[in-house]
Amino acid sequence: MSFDDFHVAHVMILATVFLLALLTGIVSRKTNFCTMGAFADWVSTGSTARMKAWLLAIAVAISGVVMLEAIGLVNVDNAIPDYRSSQLVWLQNLLGGFSFGIGMTLASGCGSKMLVRIGGGNLKSLIVVVVIALVAYYMAKPLPGSDDTLYSLLFYDWIDPFAIELDGRQDIGALAGIENHSVTARLVAGMLLVTVLLVFIFRDAEFRQQKNHITAGLVIGAAVVGVWLATSSIKVVADGETLALSTYVQNWEFLSDSDEHKPASSQFLRPQSFTIINPMGQVYGYTKSGFEDALLTCGIMIVAGIVLGSFLHAVITRGFRVEWFASFMDFVRHLLGALLMGFGGVLAMGCTFGQAISGISTLSIGSFIAFSGILLGSVLTLKIQSYMIIYEGEASFIDSLMASLADLGLIPSSLRKIDPV
Questions:
Q1: What would the pLDDT profile of 359-417 be if each residue is shown by its tens digit?
Q2: In Å, what is the CA distance from 21 to each residue of 14, 126, 385, 393, 414?
Q3: What is the percent of the chain with per-residue pLDDT over 70, rounded to a whole number?
Q4: Distance between CA atoms of residues 111 and 51, nearest Å
Q5: Which of 12-26, 93-107, 167-181, 338-352 has the lowest mean pLDDT?
Q6: Distances in Å between the alpha carbon of 357 and those of 6, 26, 134?
């Protein structure tokens, strides 16, 4: 879809992303879609229903992206973040995902769940999001009175040397080594993975009866594809050429007569989809600027849309409830979780949405690594919490940690000091 006016095209992208985020907020609240909740159900009761809803969203996202990419309607190679970069920052993906997984468990929800809860009146989640936003913003932007970001101060020097420079892109299709046929390889590999996921999901007769979970997976997966499509295919016609909006901004002085409606950066106009943590930082920057139009991004639309969608559903269903911290320790736990989510989400280049759905839809190796880190961090934390509750006063944190690691097969069972639960 092409427009003759840049501003019209830009507004169309922002509006489309906002509406898809609004739908996501409504559906997430209605169906109780929550990754951390899915992990908790699995660890505590063995139920995999919410986990399969999440996997269904991933399957839908993968199938949509690989098919649309094959026919030229979606361009993931130039995405933000650069999921398919030739530089595989595996330790950053793993450590960031692990930290995020711990953080979302301590804070009782991932980034998207925080936004959904804010829409329902949860002030605890609002505090968590404010902390995440500050961390995410200053991970990328210089600290006040300094030229250093939190990333450059705390991580760059020791984590950057672990990056691996590949010969080509890091997605499964490119790594298949089929020269000039990476799109076909992505399509084949993606549909094979989707088939495996769908068989695993729908062979469960009980899950096939869970209309809410199926709806959540289908709608959220489709929304992820929709954002990829909008940000890839909406373009502007200038001097007889059809240009991506990011390209137009890069050549603004040659194509436009004035700076009116010029975005502050071209990078946020590249193809992209749902991600939550970095956009929270963008919301802080937008607010800090006094709401400058030039700083409006798709990420900000995603945050606003999810909150508003959840709010509308909460009001219509009379589910809006103001909630606050139950105790000082509850506040401390959420604060620690928020810090870990902020640092981890940026390091991993995404969260349960940004990497585990949007990222995996690109078949990026780094996204699979981040997904694994999130899963490990969350499940380990849930197990530790379970042991500490059951053995309250009888077992230390170290005892609970060792038992949890043994449960996950990460250390020999002989090292545990308390019985499994």
A1: 999 999 999 999 999 999 999 999 999 999 999 888 889 999 999 999 999 999 989 98
A2: 10, 18, 33, 45, 48
A3: 99
A4: 17
A5: 167-181
A6: 30, 18, 24
- Position 149: which residue type? T
Name which of 357, 358, 355, 376 is nearest 366 in CA terms: 355
The span from the CA of 352 to the CA of 93, in Å, is 12
pLDDT, position 110 = 92
Helical H runs in 317-392? 328-347, 365-390
d(CA 102, CA 36): 10
CA torsion through residues 77, 89, 114, 401, sign:
positive
Q: What does the domain layout of the chain look like in residue ranges?
A: 2-373
* Sign of the dihedral through C-alpha 98, 104, 109, 115: negative
241: part of which helix (H) or strand (E)? strand 241-244
Q: What are phi and psi of 2, to 5 degrees?
A: -120, 150
Closest CA to 36 of 112, 93, 95: 112
Dist. CA 274–CA 283, nearest whole Å: 15
Q: Answer for the pair 353, 275: CB distance below 8 angstroms, yes or no.
A: yes
Residue from 280, 331, 297 nearest 138 by CA: 280
- Identity of residue 164: I
pTM higher than 0.85, yes or no?
Answer: yes
DSSP assignment letter at 362: G
pLDDT digits (tens, 9 = 90+) for 313-347: 999 999 999 999 999 999 999 999 999 999 999 99
Place of tokens 């006016």: 5
Beta strand pairing call for 2-3 and 164-165? unpaired
